[in-house]
Amino acid sequence: MSSSTRGVHGRAEVRRGQRNTAYRPLFRRGRQRRPAGVTRSARVVEVLGYIGANVRRLRLSRGLTQEQLAEAAELDLRFLQRVERGQTNVGVAVIVALAGALGVPPGRLFRKATLPEAKPGRPRKRTQGWR
Q1: Of 69, 44, 71, 47, whose CA–CA distance to 58 is shortest?
Q2: pLDDT by residue (tens digit) across 49-95?
Q3: 106 in Cβ contact with 96 (< 8 Å)
Q4: CA pair distance 82, 44, nearest whole angstrom
Q5: Distance of CA 50 to CAs 16, 38, 108, Å?
Q6: What pTM was computed for the model?
Q7: Could you give all domains of the chain from N- to C-terminal order, each with its CATH number?
Q8: Locate the HTH cro/C1-type domain: which residues (predicted)?
Q9: Angle at 111 between CA 117 and CA 53, to 5 degrees
């Protein structure tokens, strides 16, 4: 007899003490890491850099802080920071939201641009045991 049987509604029933893998999410919650050996193409990295540079340039030209833009576009602040650094993929909905909050057409975010020089910020805190 198998460890799971079909129930009344055709769903797999799991016996007590066993995991139900039928509804397990494909990814764990939290920050996802790219599997070993999988890299982004150079073109994708280049375009993500353009998007980030344009978002930052337009935000600064309008005198907005990251917090203000994140709130206007209804995005998480940390996500917006990763977008500006070109470190995360951006979906169409996010591009439309950012363009709307910045008052530009979405296509403007894809223009070739470079990130401005980063201003020196507060140095990172050193934690004991980690170097």
Answers
A1: 69
A2: 999 999 999 999 999 999 999 999 999 999 999 999 999 999 999 99
A3: yes
A4: 15
A5: 53, 22, 10
A6: 0.61
A7: 42-110 (1.10.260.40)
A8: 55-109
A9: 25
